[in-house]
Amino acid sequence: KAKASDTGNYMVFDQSMREQVQFRLQIESDMRLAIERNEFQLYYQPIVSLESGKIDGVEALLRWEHPLHGMTGPDIFIPIAEETGLINSIGKWGLDQACQQFAKWKKTQGIHAPSILHVNVSRKQLLDPGLTDFVLQTIRKHDLSPDCLHLEVTESLMMQDQVYIIEILRKLRKAGIKIDMDDFGTGYSSLSCLHEFPLDALKIDRSLIMNVKHVHDYAALLQSVLALADNLGLKVVAEGIEDTEQLIILQTLGCEYGQGYLFSRPRPADEIETLFYSEASWIQTPDALPVNST
Ligand code: C2E
Ligand code: MG
Ligand code: MG
Ligand code: MG
């Protein structure tokens, strides 16, 4: 009897394994066609000055309108794209598309256009020997100044090939492009990577912001991260601000920039445009803030 049940379990396990493998293979082969089929799309999320409420920049975030599964987020397909190497062509498509949109905003939105474009790049992309040239060509093609482009990298970059990766980052920075450390505070080596990486900005991970109002120590932790960034001359963006309470704490701590659902979810270009005119609507004047002054 026990044996039968074992076999039964095994078969269930086997079946779901097979389904998983099939799903993955399907996604992989769909992804190979997705660029020519125009299934990728960029969403944009604003990065806001916490002092003025003005939109400082936008981050481009990939979406895939899968013919069967619908709108698919990067957490599902980016890892597969990285393993298969498809991230290189998808990433190039995304960078070109984002620069084109950003240049268009500069023309059509004038002073209301965001001044900085953030694009994520993964480890595999940085290891592509043609990346630096492609980035510089793309910037030139769309007539953009290199310092309006921030490339976002994560500390997992440093796991291997450190010397080479640092060389690439230096080369990009020498050409005027800015490098941001994304998801700061999630890894083990966060502090040491600040010294190893040539950087311009830090993006503090959502997990730190999320806990700031519940766990007292997190405010202290954030305060020291902000002091450290200040010492190193790094710009700071707090990720994942979802409510006014978090916003007020960050403002009080003197964090300069923020991003999160409180301001806007990532949205298609034509929808995000309408926000460029709603300057300062998120940030209330200090005396209007609902702070407990006692
Ligand atoms: P990321 O670069 O750290 O982007 C921030 C993620 O947090 C986005 O998820 C965004 O939608 C989400 N987010 C923003 N504000 C909030 C908030 O207030 N609350 C919550 N719960 N989430 C918030 P998304 O768009 O699913 O992207 C996930 C990750 O995929 C990105 O993390 C980035 O690492 C990667 N990714 C996205 N686009 C690209 C791309 O074009 N190239 C590469 N290489 N990676 C990309
Ligand atoms: Mg990012
Ligand atoms: Mg992040
Ligand atoms: Mg992330």
Automatic annotation (TrEMBL):
It comes from the Bacteria. Residues 24-280 form the EAL domain. This is Phytochrome-like protein cph2. It comes from Gimesia algae. The gene is cph2_1. The chain holds residues 460 to 753 of 756 of the full protein.
